[in-house]
Amino acid sequence: MELSINVHNLDLTPRLEQYVAKKTDRLDRYMPTLVETTVDLTEQNARNIMERQVAQITVRDKRGVILRAEERTGDIFASIDAVIDKIHRQISRYRGKQQKKRRRGQQDSVDDFALAEPLPIEAIEEEDRSVVRHKRFSLRPMSVDEAADQMDLLGHDFFVFFNGADEEINVLYRRRDGNYGLLLPDMG
């Protein structure tokens, strides 16, 4: 597993680096197909002192499944502990869904196709809108159900994916009523 640690407004001390390495090392036991782990540690200027230390972890396995978690506390070590616990819960939830699919006899196409990372869109103030971030990602074929699972695991409200059945790019989004909507774009 490749570990990458990024820090913003913090010093990456050897103690902190060892702590992150030790905590992320045990993720291999829960997700043996893990190939990449990225940990972002940030100190932000928040009004609430208990939300200044932010730890975010993103893990990707060899099939392309991406899980992400973020936690904020007043202590960076506590943030790391909390985000590791959160990613463990996500891994457990993901594994449980995969086991249910296998028990029901559904084909697990996750073995055949990797899942795509969603495209984040961030806008700043209303009167001064501009694109502040560009992100490239690869799209691999998946079903609508797999896209919904991936969107739930990431905690996002929308998900861009390549629909293997239609061979088109689709956008899955969460509606206010809790259900999902599917956008099927046409070239006009």
Within the CATH hierarchy, at the fold level, what is the topology of the largest domain?
Answer: Double Stranded RNA Binding Domain
Percent of sequence in beta strands: 25-35%
**How many domains would you count in the coordinates?**
2
Question: Can you summarize the main beta sheet?
Answer: 4 strands, mixed
Work out the number of β strands. Answer: 8
Helix percentage? 25-40%
The poorly predicted ranges are 108-127
Distance between the termini: 44 Å
Derived structural class: alpha/beta
Number of helices: 4
Overall geometric form: globular
In CATH terms, the superfamily of the largest domain is Ribosome hibernation promotion factor-like
Describe how the helices and strands are arranged.
Elements: E1 2-8, H1 14-25, H2 27-30, E2 34-43, E3 53-61, E4 66-73, H3 76-103, E5 141-142, H4 144-154, E6 158-163, E7 168-174, E8 180-183
Parallel strand pairs: 1-2, 5-6
Antiparallel strand pairs: 2-3, 3-4, 6-7, 7-8
